[in-house]
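Narrative summary of target 7.
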Amino acid sequence: MGIYERKKREKKRRKTEILNAARKVFSSKGFNSATVEEIALEAELSPGTLYLYFKNKEELHTILSIEILKYLADKIQKVVSQNISVEEKIEKFCNVFVELYEYDSNILINLFHLQSGETLKNLSPEVLQQIKTYSIMAHGAMVDVVKKGIDQGIFIDEHPVAVADILWSSYAGVVLWVDSKRLLDDQKNFVKSTLKTTFKIIIKGLKKE
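Modeled conformation, tokenized:
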């Protein structure tokens, strides 16, 4: 192995170590309370060295969010490829959403904030492009299911992009709102049940009478 290959391999390993450290710090302290210094300490690096690999704290958290977004896009597309009814596919979208929330609610919540916040302006072009790519994959798959339901005469004739937007925004809205209430009483986590109720109502509203 040449010098270039060794350096490339070392850089990849170091970036992975930093991301693992960031995940631990974010999970224990939350995004707002976590600092670059704490992440660097967890990775056994100096803050200056960490900045050689990542632009800022926002970019670190965003890359972790991209992992979840990619996972979501893959799962959604697998649902679309199944030989089941469009109603069942919408229901399975809800199951995927619940699974994603249970996997890491903190990073998922940050993903929703990223997609509507000023943080996007502070990201590198490469990271921003990844967010766009996986968002389009997930959203486009939902649009395809809705369009198929409309074409089959099962769903009401509304714009499929608008309906997919409603599915996604309902997901984000329930997670952000219900999770914020959980902060007031950590014994009450109704995100899963509320999501299921939300999608029952949406599916009922989508169907033609």
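The chain has two domains: 1-54, 58-206.
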